[in-house]
Amino acid sequence: MTSPMLSVCGLVAYDGSNYHGFQVQVGVPTIQGALEGALAAITTPASRVVGSGRTDAGVHANGQVIVVRLPWRHSVADLQRAWNAHLPPDISLRRLVLAPEGFHPRFSALSRTYRYRIDQYDPGGYPPPRRSPLTERYGLFVPRPLDLEAMRAAAEALVGEHDFATFGQPPQGVNTVRRIFEAEWRVVHTDLPPLDDFPGRRIVFTVRANAFLRQMVRNLVGSLLEVGRGRWSPDDMALALAARERSCSAPPAPPQGLIWERVEYPDQLGVWS
Amino acid sequence: MTSPMLSVCGLVAYDGSNYHGFQVQVGVPTIQGALEGALAAITTPASRVVGSGRTDAGVHANGQVIVVRLPWRHSVADLQRAWNAHLPPDISLRRLVLAPEGFHPRFSALSRTYRYRIDQYDPGGYPPPRRSPLTERYGLFVPRPLDLEAMRAAAEALVGEHDFATFGQPPQGVNTVRRIFEAEWRVVHTDLPPLDDFPGRRIVFTVRANAFLRQMVRNLVGSLLEVGRGRWSPDDMALALAARERSCSAPPAPPQGLIWERVEYPDQLGVWS
Question: Could you give the CA distance from residue B98 to residue B44 in angstroms, rounded to a whole number?
Fold first, then answer.
């Protein structure tokens, strides 16, 4: 009376505020640990959840992709429902499907897309504007002017295939060459009239690459913030990149502004269809 | 060596998730309690913080207004800095100024503006879309179609001076007549391309009135959701209003979607200028 083994692939969203990152670590709450713990409540023996990558402590995700092989005798929809019922409210399994033949959440990926959100207020008068608790859980509050055009110019220099050794260590091996397809700052305009009379704007950095080094997005954003503040010129960004030297990066931007939005797979795999 | 007494008026934003509402209650965390506790760390004797109104447990604010009379010998900017330094991260004192002569945060107010945010997903396929932890802290997740035109028609019937006894009890006295100046549903369009491929939209209800009864906004939204789901017609909303009977309201919408955005005062008071 053993259950048949299934390989399922899931889309996971989480608020990373209360977790020490994705990967299981002894004695601290992690996303992978919570996913496996919830699964252990509904299946035996324990199954290992494999993610498409790691996130740092405090980083969020809308589209982490996981795969797990487990014994299950009911439908995949039933598994999704049961698994979600055992997850804490800050983690959600948004999709769950049978994994395509040969699918691996990391090795099958073509690219990953991250976003970094900044709520930037101009200091109009004294004292300067104060942070708003309603925006800082998923964004960085910056109470000073930022030169967006300079940040855009600096970001452009990152697009293409480069050795990003300045901006992070590889998760394994020694290869620090990555290809960035898109690295763009956008001002978020919405047609909902603001009721908050603080002078400011929300800017969002979207970056998509074949893969990222550890802390690479946060180091890139930290360095782009130096450009925005006028401490670095856009050319300094290109020089930092060319140095291929970890010490040439600015400190990483804080984790709470970072959201892992999506993992892109080849269409022919038909992962979610 | 006593300090001079100051009356100051502040603009307070808070994430209400971890509080039992604004008003002080014994043995549970409240916004007023946290504000007074932080103040007690920097001034003696203890001072009472007076708000422009209450919020329920779990409701958020961008623009709660408070007034407090306290002994202080330094600048108001110093007081704001010191007070903020003792507040928890989910509460922020965004502005602090000397209170205008005769100012009262509640009685001087002309109107209050609230917003209720809904993330509405259309069930495309089976199983239906799952909640996203990144949007549900400040919004309600509704995984079904909502008839927005019907909700708009129903909201229109609320504008004007009416007896709102169906939708709440008065905070004091017996008068349940209030004047709604604006009650409008908007779809939030933003020029940031969505990376989330779940079919859905964010809709926001903005309501401004001279004053509100207890739980009135949540009861109005709860009833408008009945209209959106097709269980009530827009006319049923007008009938519920005309009944002036608490039992004729739908259950209140959950608190986490509600944000108290602003309190409006007469220009000539020059509160923040």
Answer: 19
